[in-house]
Amino acid sequence: MSILSNEQDRLKALLNYKILDTLPEKEFDRLTTLASAICETNVSLICLLDDHRQWFKSKTGIDISETPKELAFCSYTILGNELMEVEDASKDERFKYNPLVVSDPQIRFYAGYPLIDQLGNALGTICVIDTVPKKLNAHQKQALKLLADFAIELIQERRNSQEFKYFNKLFKLTNDLICVAGTDGFFKKVNPAFNELLGWDESYLLKISFLDLTHPDDVVKTKLEIDQLEKGIVAVSFINRLRCNDGTYKYIQWATAPEVSTGYLFSIGRDLTLEKQKEILLTNSEHKLRSFFENSQGFMCTHDVAGNFLTVNSSGAESLGYLPEEMTKMSLFDVVPASHHQELERYLALILEKGIAKGIMHTKNKNGSLMIWLFSNVVEEDADGNKYIIGNSIDITERHRLEADLKWTKEMMEHTNEAARIGSWNINLQSNKIYWSDMTKSIHGVSLDYVPTYETAISFFEGTSIDLINCAVEKAINKGIAYDLELKIKTANGELLWVRTIGTPEFKDGVCKRLYGTFQDINDKKKVEEALLNQKSRLRAFVDHAPAAVAMFDTDMKYIAVSKRWIEDYHLKDKEIIGVSHFEVFPHITDEWKAVFARCLKGDIEKDDEYLRKVEGADDQYLQFEIRPWYKFDATVGGVMIFTQDITESIAHREELEKAKILAEDASIAKSEFLANMSHEIRTPLNGVIGFTDLVLKTNLNSTQHQYLSIVNQSANSLLLIINDILDFSKIEAGKLELDVDKTDLYEISSQAIDIISYQVQNKGLELLLNISVNLPRFIWVDAVRLKQVLVNLLGNAVKFTDKGEIELKITALDDPSANEINLRFEVRDTGIGIQEDKQSKIFEAFSQEDASTTKKYGGTGLGLTISNKLLGLMNSQLQLKSEPEQGSTFFFDLKLKTEHGLPMVWENINQIKKEAILSESESINIFKMLAQRLKVLVVEDNLVNKLLAKTIIQRIVPLAEIIEANDGLEAVRLFSALRPDIVFMDIQMPVMNGYEATQKIRALANGKHIPIIALTAANIKGEKEKCLAAGMDDFLSKPFVEDDIAALLVKWNNDLEDTTLISMENENNVEVDPHFDAEMVKEFVDNDKESLIEILNLVLKSIQDSLTMMEQQLANQDLAALNASGHKLFGTAAGTGMNVLSKIAREFEYLDHLEITQTNDLLERVTEEIKLVTFLINDFLQKLD
To answer: Where does the PAS domain start and stop, copy by copy (predicted)?
Structure first.
């Protein structure tokens, strides 16, 4: 079955008619009777359908009052607007199974019209039913339609009639005024409420214009409202006043609806007189409150629950330095200091919880001054139920200050009395009651609840003090004499105390009524006085019996006290000098000495540790003296004290010591010169032994030859180490060794220490670890040479005493690594033989090892640890040891060093490590360049062996080099001027002219300013390197040296020779080369070795591409320093592999001094395009090789 789309509206309309379940009504019964007669059926019904049933308002021919809605034929009828007719229900698909069809009442025929009201709601039907099939004729259908229209009219009229009854009852019974009036100003109809409220009867009101009853002040307003209503404009409401029969007026609020067609006004009026009277009273009250609020001298306000001001009185706002309108834009949090915000939050929470709050609040004036308020606030609600707070406060700032001052004064008095141990007491002689203050009780050692009597109070006094106090009290009472005594008491704890008691009598009418005073603990004062007396006695005894000559004078230089030694030294035994002027005792005192005494009396101190006193007729006398003022208790000078001591014997002894010292220094100088000469003389032949054996070991030798020469080389190096240890030990013992502290790369020095012993480690098959914390600073301020010497010594010992396992150099920070000065710990750990605990202290002694067997097995001088420890001593540190036999040892020391972080360490080629590599990319390129260069090298050396060694090593490293030889400095200057070499190796100690002078003369030449000069010296003494650099040399190499040392220096200084060498090569070869990529130059580097050429060029391609990526990133990050570094690296790669254009662009990056976007973008574009070009050229060259 279908459902109407407006079903809910239909059901609601049906209920509004209030007809369901009502009693039968004859008007509806007539209709059903007439319908049954006209249509000739047994049953006729008026049905109304709600949500679950059809209910019969009227029925003919059936006794039931309702049926379920789902069985109702009428449910279909209301779906349309026309007649629904079912001729035979047993044959209709909709109804043939309906229980009303298949069983009683056996319905066969049905015809019905829907009952539709004016709003289109189908409320029900009027229908006819029969038990036999049939069909209505047209006349019957028309009649049934008319009956349906009449039925719906009855339903509507029934509701209207009911509503009229309700309205009429309301019209008569309501207290509101209800009327119909005309726009002409006359009432047409009024309800009884007019008479009840106004006192006028209906007949009178219908005769007069209602404007005559309107208050004169409201007539114009009322006319305007009527004009609007006449035009159909409805006002929500308006108020006017109507006159009552007794002459008073009532406030009436009108709601009026006009009927424009008739000119009638339908109005309802409500009496608002009482509300208006209340409103007036409220307005008056509010006005008074507002006047009180605004004129109050305190701070009055209202604020919301969050503390935002709603209103503030003028006086309150002014007291804080604001206008009221300013404060309504502020909150309590703006005027309460931040330090009191927590208290403010507690106040807001408390007043919301309790509804009231009282207390003290601190505020900050606009000018920054602080104010204190006593407040009493309550919570109220507005008409909408929103809570707000009414605040009333008075300014207690001044009162608070006075109270604080009073409290402070009271506390100060109490603290003063407490500090001074002063109590009070009072005796009422009329009541015989005694009062003791808390401090008085404390002095007596009794509890605070102790109640004294006169007898008990006197009993505390001890010995003669009892008689003294009794006598004093008696005189005070009888004669009015006050007293002030210092007496002894014995406290309740048995302690003897000195006290000061003051008593004052109070008389009235000649009779002592009261005795009062103070009681003070002066025990400490008495002790001080006794101590002072004792001190004076001791001082007197000290001065009298001092072993030195001491005298004390007043400001007139009269003697106050002297020591016996003074009397003896100055031969005054037979003279009485106390109270006598010093100038009388010694009448020949010079004016110079009198001036000295005068200065000391003004506060100066005069002393001389070695004063020569000439005495007539006797030997000269050396004195040590001091004259200083002494001060009285008020810090004024009370006089002077003179101390003298005869040091004649000490001076003589000192002169003897100075002579001995000169002899010792001469011996030390001779020793130092001997050591320096020995160092030079021993190192010179050792240079030849070590250098040439190193070179021969790199030639083709049979195993026996290699073994023998290795022994020679190792023995020579061992001898060198022993010589260095002995020389260092000698310098340390002589106090001649000084530290040279400078900025040092921590990572570099640690790596160098590891490199030095790596060969020994490899020979023994050990694992070598370098463990440096990643967050350590890059640079430290330290003597790099001596720190490396200590580390190498510790690492060397570790290698020597370890046969298997590992050796570790570990460096960690003991403090915050980001600080400018931190403690670093250096540790060397091994897995060697370890050291017995009882032998650990012995190994730090000079020339000592753990035991004799160790020396025999491992060798050594036993000086290494001693020297290391003494070097660390100069660095304010010392070696420490942790060791277990057969487990290994850990030597460590801590250094507090100034640091600088610098740029982080980066392994530029980490991703290129595919196999073992000896040199980095940049180093290998420099070596290849160097092999191809025709360098001119000047070797200046007077020792033929050392000269031959240097020549041989250089020729091995740079086969094409031209070596120029000079035997002394003078010849070196001449050859340099004539031949202009590219680099100079300069010996220091030579005949005719030494290396220092030769270097200075070369630097003075026009072509000698920028040529590297490397010092070669056998000296190993403090300051040698500095002297070489100061003379103008660029670097320093100590003899003996080996091939690797020379090679490292040539690589290091080769960059400075790049431009000159490359230019000379180009001119010499005189061939046209591609400026973008000189393939012939690279081929020459590798001597046309195809495999090496391919490997190097692939490495170059990877390197330049990596450089471009890094430079792009660094430019994006605006990192100028990193960009300079990348430019330098790219320059080295490009210049060393024949990419001249690229090297010039890279050099521009290297020397950029600021970042300017247009310039840097142009450079980046140029370098990008050039790298693309050389990449193409190199790849093309590599393809042709294949």
So the answer is: 163-218, 285-355
Main-chain phi, psi angles of 939, to 5 degrees: -105, 115
Into how many domains does the chain fold?
A: 8
Confidence band of 1086 (pLDDT split at 50, 70, 90): low
Angle separating helix axes 1140-1150 and 1157-1185, nearest 10 degrees = 150
Q: Is 503 contained in some domain?
A: yes
Dist. CA 1104–CA 1116, nearest whole Å:
18
Domain-embedded: residue 720:
no
Listed residue (403, 496, 405, 399) closest to 443, CA to CA: 496
The residue type of 5 is S
Q: How far apart are the first and last CA of the chain?
A: 94
Residues 6+ apart with CB under 8 A from 239: 251, 252, 253, 254, 272
- Give the CATH number, domain containing residue 228: 3.30.450.20
For residue 806, name the pLDDT band (cuts at 50, 70, 90): very high
Q: Are residues 1080 and 1044 in the same domain?
A: no
Cα gap 1013→940, rounded to integer Å: 10
Q: What are phi and psi of 965, to 5 degrees?
A: -110, 140
922 — pLDDT class (breaks 50, 70, 90): very low
The β-bridge partners of 45 are 59, 127
Contact call for residues 46 and 55 (beta carbons, < 8 A): no
Among candidate residues 793, 752, 701, 711, the one with its CA nearest the CA of residue 1044: 752
Please give the helix or strand (H or E) that residue 396 lies within, else none: none
Same domain, 837 and 888: yes
With vertex at residue 291, the alpha carbon angle to CA 285 and CA 295, rounded to the nearest 5 degrees, is 150
pLDDT at residue number 174: 80
Report d(CA 1053, CA 1045) in Å as an integer.
Answer: 13
β-pairing verdict for 779-782 and 767-772: unpaired
Band (323; pLDDT cuts 50, 70, 90): very high
Residue ranges making up the domain that contains 987:
658-701+920-1058
Of 563-567, 746-750, 835-839, the one with minimum mean pLDDT is 835-839
Residues 434 and 578 in one domain: no
Residue with tokens 């050429």: 1093
Claim to verify: residue 1174 and residue 1091 sit in the same structural domain: yes
Four-residue CA torsion sign, 722, 724, 727, 730: negative
Domain assignment of residue 651, yes or no: no
Cβ–Cβ under 8 Å, residues 1127 and 1111: yes
Residue 927 has pLDDT above 50, yes or no: no
Concatenate the DSSP letters of all residues of 407-433 into one string. Answer: HHHHHHHHHHHHHHTEEEEEEETTTTE
Burial class (CB in 10 A: 0-12, 13-18, 19+), 179: buried
Q: Which residues of 1017-1054 are buried (b: 16+ CB within 10 A; e: fewer)?
A: bbbbbeebbebbeebbbbbbbbbbbbbebbbebbbebb
> What six digits make up the tokens of 467?
């008689």
Residues 338, 328 contacting (CB under 8 angstroms)? no
Q: How far is 662 from 143, CA to CA, in rounded Å?
A: 161
Q: Is the peptide bond before 885 cis (omega within 30 degrees of 0)?
A: no
For residue 927, give the CATH number of its domain: 3.40.50.2300
CB-based contact 1035:1050 (threshold 8 Å):
no
Same domain, 158 and 24: yes
Shared domain check, 616 and 488: no
Share of the chain above pLDDT 90, in %: 32
Which class for 979: exposed (0-12), middle (13-18), buried (19 or more C-beta within 10 A)?
Answer: exposed
Same domain, 219 and 260: yes
Range with the lowest mean pLDDT among 592-601, 756-765, 861-870?
861-870
Residue 117 belongs to a domain: yes
Cα of 1156 vs its chain's centroid, Å: 35
DSSP strand E in 814-908: where?
A: 821-830, 880-884, 888-900
